[in-house]
Amino acid sequence: MTAPKQSPELAPSVEELEAQERRLVFPRFTYDDAWALGSLLVELARERQAPVAIDIHRAGQQLFHAALPGSSPDNDAWIARKRRVVERYGAASYLVGARFRAKGTTFEESSRLDPDVYAAHGGSFPVTVEGVGVVGAVTVSGLPQLQDHRLVVEALEHFLSRA
């Protein structure tokens, strides 16, 4: 007897991803906000026993970092590559990759950027401050890219609903 085929997770459309970015905007983003958001991500990841590393940067400074059981130094390398995409494009790393896929190509084939330095894979989301713009990034690595992206979005939605 063969196992039933599992349907792959439906990837959000470019429009849905852009709507997330418009919605998930901070009134301000302080050191305390970075700590609280990072701590929330750790809590969510621990509940799921997710083997992730979590990073929050603002204006070139690392404000938060945590590595949970099962994560590895490779996750830190992925974090840096995904964060650089956010810093360069001002958009979520998953959205940047989705925009290339929507054009029938890939980031790696068409961006002309070194894939050892940049990765348009899910998990890094811009920290956008109202009236200012993108000031940093919150990044998760350790799960499949769509799950990394969704974990960050879930944390941002929860955090901003309390703001």
Characterize the structure shown.
This protein has 163 residues and is of the alpha+beta class. Strands 2-1-4-3 form a four-stranded antiparallel beta sheet. α2 crosses α6. The protein is 47% helix and 17% strand. The chain has a single domain, classed as 2-Layer Sandwich (Beta-Lactamase), CATH 3.30.450.
Radius of gyration: 16 Å
Shape: globular
Residue runs with pLDDT of under 50 for 5 or more positions: 1-7
Number of E-state strands: 4
Fourth-level CATH superfamily: Haem-degrading domain
How far the N terminus sits from the C terminus, by CA atoms, comes to: 52 Å
Provide a count of the helices. 6
Side-by-side strand order of the widest sheet: 2-1-4-3
Give me the CATH architecture, please: 2-Layer Sandwich
Largest sheet: 4 strands, antiparallel
Mean pLDDT: 94
- Number of individual domains: 1
Strand content: 15-25%
Topology pattern, helix = H, strand = E? HHEEHHHEEH
InterPro entries: PduO/GlcC-like, PduO/GlcC-like_sf, YBR137W-like
Protein name: UPF0303 protein H114_10361
Family: Belongs to the UPF0303 family.
Pfam families: HbpS-like (PF03928)
